[in-house]
Automatic annotation (TrEMBL):
Pfam families: Syntaxin-18_N (PF10496). The chain crosses the membrane at residues 290-308. Its main location: membrane. GO terms for biological process: protein transport; retrograde vesicle-mediated transport, Golgi to endoplasmic reticulum. Keywords: Coiled coil, Membrane, Protein transport, Transmembrane, Transmembrane helix, Transport. The keyword rRNA-binding does not apply. GO terms for cellular component: endoplasmic reticulum; SNARE complex. It is found in: Membrane. The keyword Metal-binding does not apply. Residues 5-86 form the SNARE-complex protein Syntaxin-18 N-terminal domain. This is SNARE-complex protein Syntaxin-18 N-terminal domain-containing protein.
Length: 309
């Protein structure tokens, strides 16, 4: 047996001579020779680029939360306006990431629709595997975004709870001040009643109007404080419901992925069933032909034996 000889160096010498004959300089010849060793990385698909961009956006959101975590939860570091600004930026981040994930889902659905044949069955197995891989990528991105969103929901719940704890003592203090003012107003009224007969009538009317306005303002402030406390409590409940809803959405995404896998398996089973049916039809037709041939031969055999006898 003749041993094979390595002709790689001969090929490189031929390429080098051809490059020099074409007038290439040494740098270009070196780059051509290096291309035989170092191959260029394959180009990523638009879906992969969009998925990586979405993952980078989610990572930036996570870093932003870690950076402003203390500023958002500590009441002595920042003002309410600054915390509202942080919350607005985080909400914008989350909305942008969710829109990018929705775009990826729509592209997968469009590709899945175009890859199906006229019977609704995938044309090639490789394309179905690629679509399943893309569904897995979208599911991982959704889980990552859900984790970051859950962290922000916890921070928001801490902020609202601090606001409620801060508002409850203020309400009690206002009630105490109202009772003190009511107790002090009684002796003042007694003192005013004594010289009332000596004072003029307009002063008494003006004092009465001032007292009525003060009581009305106190009632209005009390109602406003009750409304604010009720609103804060509802906001905490809404945050908890939002966290619960996001958890259910993640569970539904997992169930959808499971249903998709079952649909792929059912499609494969249908294809196998169609093949079995076609084979059964072929076997049925061949057996029918064999039976007719057997009856034909048997009939002629009987007639021949009858004639022969």
């Amino acid at each position: 047996m003749v041993k094979a000889r390595d002709r790689t160096e001969d090929f490189k010498d031929t390429v080098r001579r051809s490059a020099h004959s074409l007038g290439y300089d040494e740098a270009k010849v070196a780059s051509i020779m290096a291309s035989f060793i170092i191959h260029k990385p394959p180009q990523r698909s638009p879906f992969s680029k969009a998925a990586l961009k979405t993952l980078e956006s989610i990572g930036e959101l996570d870093q932003f939360l870690l950076k402003h975590r203390k500023d958002y939860t500590d009441l002595h570091r920042t003002t309410e306006k600054e915390r509202d600004s942080i919350e607005h930026e985080v909400s914008t981040f989350i909305k942008t990431c969710q829109e990018q994930i929705d775009i990826l889902k729509n592209s997968i659905n469009q590709e899945e629709e175009t890859s199906k044949g006229w019977l609704g069955i995938a044309t090639t197995k490789s394309n179905a595997d690629v679509i399943a891989h893309k569904h897995g990528v979208v599911l991982i991105l959704s889980e990552r975004l859900h984790t970051v969103t859950a962290q922000f929901d916890q921070l928001r719940a801490v902020r609202f709870q601090d606001a409620i704890n801060k508002a409850i003592p203020r309400r009690k203090l206002n009630r105490v001040t109202r009772t003190d003012s009511a107790e002090t107003s009684k002796p003042d009224g007694m003192e005013l009643r004594e010289p009332e007969e000596l004072r003029a009538e307009p002063l008494r009317v003006q004092q009465q109007l001032l007292d009525d306005e003060t009581r009305a303002l106190q009632v209005e402030l009390t109602n406003l404080l009750d409304t604010v406390q009720e609103t804060e409590t509802k906001m905490v409940e809404m945050s908890a419901l939002n966290h619960l809803m996001s958890t259910h959405v993640l569970q539904q995404a997992q169930q959808i992925e499971h249903l998709y896998e079952q649909a792929i398996e059912a499609t494969k089973n249908v294809e196998l069933g169609n093949k079995e049916l076609s084979q059964a039809i072929q076997r049925n037709s061949s057996s029918r032909t064999f039976l007719l041939l057997f009856l034909f031969v048997l009939t002629f055999s009987i007639l021949f034996l009858d004639w022969y006898s």
